[in-house]
Amino acid sequence: MATLPGSASDCEALIAYDAAQSRLATHSIPLGIERASLAKAGRRAVAEAVYARIDSPRADTAAMDGYAVRNADIDTGQRAFPVTGTHFAGGASTSPLTPGSAVRIMTGAPLPAGADRVVMLEQVRLEGDRVILPQTLSAKVHVRRRASDFAAGDTLLKPGRVIDPRALLIAAAADVAELAVWRRPRVGFLSTGDELTDPGNAAATTSDIPDCLAEAVALLARQWGAKPAGAARVADDAEAIRGAAEGALADCNVLVVIGGASRGDRDFARLALLPLGLDLVFADVAIKPGKPVWYGRIGAQHVLGLPGNPTAAMTVARLFLAPLLTGLDGRGTDAALVPTMLPLADDAPTAIREQFLCGHADGAGVRIIERQMASSQAMLRNADMIVRIPGGAAPSPAGTSVATFRF
Ligand SMILES: Nc1nc2c(c(=O)[nH]1)N[C@H]1C(S)=C(S)[C@@H](COP(=O)(O)OP(=O)(O)OC[C@H]3O[C@@H](n4cnc5c(N)ncnc54)[C@H](O)[C@@H]3O)O[C@H]1N2
Ligand code: MOO
């Protein structure tokens, strides 16, 4: 068998998880900047600061429906005011308030020049064309000062901020119609395996098994910001894998190759791609499950190889594909890798290799799902998180604080 650059036989050292992540991070750099309308900018990371193009409020405005008056008149003891007009939100700038008079005003309407207080509708009564204010007036003047929320030129969103609904509100309020955002990676998927068939077709055969990973990993990629760029499935045949990969690479930034990652007689994934110029960055990581995961570059494109065992594949997709995608789309690899530290509810199983096990949390802490295997499928319905358990002889007893990653 040909020697694979970056690979390790069982006698060679595997690359440590943290070292593999460091290597991934050096390659996972933003793809580039594009402009997106507000409608298309959601969940993207902004590449340039967002500045306010206008003051907000744009003028001194009423914070309540009521009557705009001058404090100077109030201070003289005047409480009955002739009403000289009505101001609505959206109205143009108005003539100044005549001293000794009031203007009926609605929330959001600009105050007439000279007015510096709004008395709420509920606190006044009308007598003919005069408004009568109460003797005692609150300290609150119910005026929103011009630029008191933000001023034109203020930095409202910093580069790297992910556009969530609140950030979208701010961009729109800043009078920004388009945002400079990092490009989203296009991700293609290639499942390999003679035994695989489309879900829905296996029962009609005696031995085929449904490809349970293609759609699941594509959804995981979408959840982490990717644009899916098609999926193909090929037999365990190096020529077929190479041909399909070549076609897929023309249309994606990241190609995820599923299966054929290991040492079997028909595990061709990495070997098949070497003639395309595959430059392996790491392969065979000292983790359980998912050891055969590999990552490399073919020119500008990124190629991630997942093992075929379903739980192993989903685990390393979460651990390596998610940060690859957040690195490429400007959020940074850490966006997918910051753990939540939680106490173990029970003693964790021990293993020589570092383990990334499926678990879920309840009031007592993290529970690692029992009897899970790299090939498990049904178990995943209860797997809300991946739990990092250190390798080596040292046990991790109940109460130990462990790193968890939401699935
Ligand atoms: N001698 C060794 N054998 C194995 C090693 C090793 O280091 N030395 N590693 C083991 C580990 S760990 C894993 S994980 C698997 C990974 O195998 P491959 O990536 O080569 O995957 P396949 O051989 O193609 O398939 C393994 C298993 O998974 C099923 N599979 C594959 N793709 C899918 C899919 N899309 N949907 C559903 N099921 C899938 C496949 O049918 C096999 O049952 O290798 C160990 N062996
Ligand atoms: O590590 Mo493999 O991914 O156990 O089955």
UniProtKB/TrEMBL annotation:
Enzyme type, top EC level: transferase
Catalysis: reaction(s): adenylyl-molybdopterin + molybdate = Mo-molybdopterin + AMP + H(+)
Domain MoaB/Mog, chain residue ranges per copy: 188-327
PANTHER family (UniProt xref): GEPHYRIN, MOLYBDOPTERIN BIOSYNTHESIS PROTEIN
Native source species: Sphingomonas immobilis
Keywords assigned: Magnesium, Metal-binding, Molybdenum, Molybdenum cofactor biosynthesis, Transferase
Role played: Catalyzes the insertion of molybdate into adenylated molybdopterin with the concomitant release of AMP.
EC number(s) recorded for this UniProt protein: 2.10.1.1
Alphabetical list of SMART domains matching this protein: MoCF_biosynth (SM00852)
Source taxon at top rank: Bacteria
Protein name: Molybdopterin molybdenumtransferase
Entry keyword annotation includes Magnesium: yes
Cofactors demanded by this protein: Mg(2+)
Family to which this protein belongs: Belongs to the MoeA family.
InterPro entries reported in the protein's UniProt record: MoaB/Mog-like_dom_sf (IPR036425), MoaB/Mog_dom (IPR001453), MoeA-like (IPR038987), MoeA_C_domain_IV_sf (IPR036688), MoeA_linker/N (IPR005110), MoeA_linker/N_sf (IPR036135)
Pathway: Cofactor biosynthesis; molybdopterin biosynthesis
